[in-house]
Amino acid sequence: MKRPYLPSSPIPITATLSSSSPPPPRTPVSFSFPALTDDAVPPHTLILGTHPSQISLARTRYYANPSNAFWWLVGDALGFRYDAGLKPRSDGKARKKGGGAGEREEPAGRVDYFAALRYSSPLLPYDAAAARLAAAGFALWDVVGACEREGSLDADIAPQSVVANDVRALCDRFPSIRRVCFASGAQTAKLFLQQNEEWVRSGAFSLPHGEPIPPPFAARKWRDAFTIAEGTPPRIVLVVLPSVSPAAASISYLAKREAWERLCFKPGLRELDKWQGRRDTSDGRIDDCPARFSLETCEAPSNNKEPIG
């Protein structure tokens, strides 16, 4: 991935500093990852985050924080349980007296997620989970390609430092993309609108039929951009989803899953069926879909609902 150009000149020293004083420290610039796609499967859905968190940047993985709901939602939709690795047991004790180091660990993630997950197997680590997602026609990327930010919150991004990813070029490269889903809620959608105003006003997009118009699309400024005239060619649907971020803890996992499956995964899987020429899935049943996405490196999908956690 070619990184966007950023000026490297230091922050000017103000007159109040002596000539021997160093310039004020500057927040390091971070860069997003390359878009995740499968060369063999044209993507139908592009899932956009804002910018990788500090944990994701350190691990070079999309949504690497085990408390982030994203990969757990993907597993529930595509027939696997995400394996986020291990963490020290919350009680600090071994599972049994004299237990080894491994027995002092437990699966990373949130207990409320574990209680709601559909599948106990197969367990897929990050690389296999990402491969299965892309093989199902879901692409991943971020709205912000580079920025200065203290911490991981979207609100902490320095606005003047933002360099946008060229989402339009990606959609031009993959004209199969029919849906763009914002994984971090309205804030990500707002940044997308700010960075792509000309494109949005060109008539390239629509909003989900029959759904309430979410912010920021409901603002008067954007109302005409989504007015669909009779005979208009198919547009890319923009979907604002409940944020997968751990900061959005007020929204339950089950509520997030319902919205993500209804507005992202089920429509996407129907598009994949059309492309594959497979059986009609107009009823939108996700439980029947995982077998189609088995990879050679994965076990057969299982609906076995064993205790999880």
TrEMBL record:
Listed InterPro entries: Uracil-DNA_glycosylase-like_sf
Biased composition (Low complexity): 11-20
Region (Disordered): 1-30
Name of the protein in question: Uracil-DNA glycosylase-like domain-containing protein
